[in-house]
Design brief:
Blueprint: H1 13-19, H2 21-28, H3 54-68, E1 78-87, E2 92-97, E3 100-104, H4 119-142, E4 148-155, E5 158-161, E6 168-171, E7 175-182, H5 187-200, H6 202-208, E8 217-222, H7 235-246, E9 270-276, E10 283-287, E11 293-296, H8 311-334, E12 340-349, E13 362-373, H9 377-390, H10 392-398, E14 403-409, H11 414-420
Amino acid sequence: MKLTSPKNFSSLFASSVAALGLLAVTSQSLHAQATHTTQDWAQTPAAFDDGESLRDFQTRQRSALSLLKGNPELEKSVKLSAKVTAESRTGIRRLRIRNFQLLSDGGRETAEFNLAAGSWPSVVSALSSAVAGDFLTQASLKGIPIDSLEVIFTSRPGSAPSQTTGTQVTYPRGLAYTIFVESPASDQQLEELRKTVERVSPVLNLVTQAQNIGHGTLVLTPTPAQREGKVLAGLREFLEDKYAASQGAVPPEWTKDRVAPKRDDSRPPLRAHVKVEGDTGIRNIRTDNGNFQIIHDYPRYLGGHNIGVVPEEDILGRMITCLTHIYEIEASKRQVVLDTLELEVEGTLTTRLGNTANPPVYKDIAYRVNIGSPEPKEKIEALQKAVEAICPIYNMLKDSQPVKGTIVRGPYTAEKEKAVGN
């Protein structure tokens, strides 16, 4: 691999930005600028407190669940799948789940473009959405009215030996959530709801119970070592820039005295805030990482509008966005030439979502990686082995870890969150 000068990234940056036009337009709709007010983004102004309540959605959801009761379709297993492509010159991870597309990206100091949240905050977002969605569903089933529902999910990444391989791995640990709820239900009813969620939630069980996720299937397609004629810059040039960034290079648009942003260690580095919207039940999630927005929704047969993915499939997709990112990092560090990189994951839910008598659990999770490269197969196999040994989300799902949950009455406020202290 030809090395890029450590003074700055490739001069192809400008053309890369132009090539990002479509992705940037897509991302702009998902990326909200952070504000510096004291009010949290999800707090409802007093003037709008008389709007639609979640009770309206619960009525429709309970009706939908009642219609499903006893339906043999609920006992059938469901295949979940997702695909991630490393986008050529930019290296952006484009995640496709059904008809939905989501981006995963990193900061400019690592030669990426900061167009979307990374895999770690996105996983925490999926966990927050799962808690909110399952809590609301169980409340609807039991006839417990909910007037407002928000969930804060936090994690403090740490390093420890993998439970399956013994390799030292850093990934999201210290998983904790707080449910902020307005409801006339008793404290005992709400606590029983929370415990039920932890017992039946497929996503929470995915992280609290060790998963048998095996070695990925590798498909290698040879590509020319030397490209002839004029060709567009691609993934191998992105990896050159990523190597240069690891050696101290800075983006060409940065001034000489600008330094990479430092993490604020005064609060958990991973945090997601989900608000369940009144009347629709849509889960509107924001991450602290750049204040990016993610939408999760229920399928129509569960009373939703099907305008977003469900957390059960999103969390599998985030596993392979993380694997893709680690492939990029390790390939650049080892100077392994890659021209194409695409990962696919499949998993099965034992029963269909909405099956409350026999809640679904995951099985048969497996991934495949498709790589185009001029490197020998032995070198690519060594790369894959190194990636699987350290990939955070891949190892997070293979291992098991506890999740701590708390309920707080009333709408979310920063003061209440601070008092809980997760």
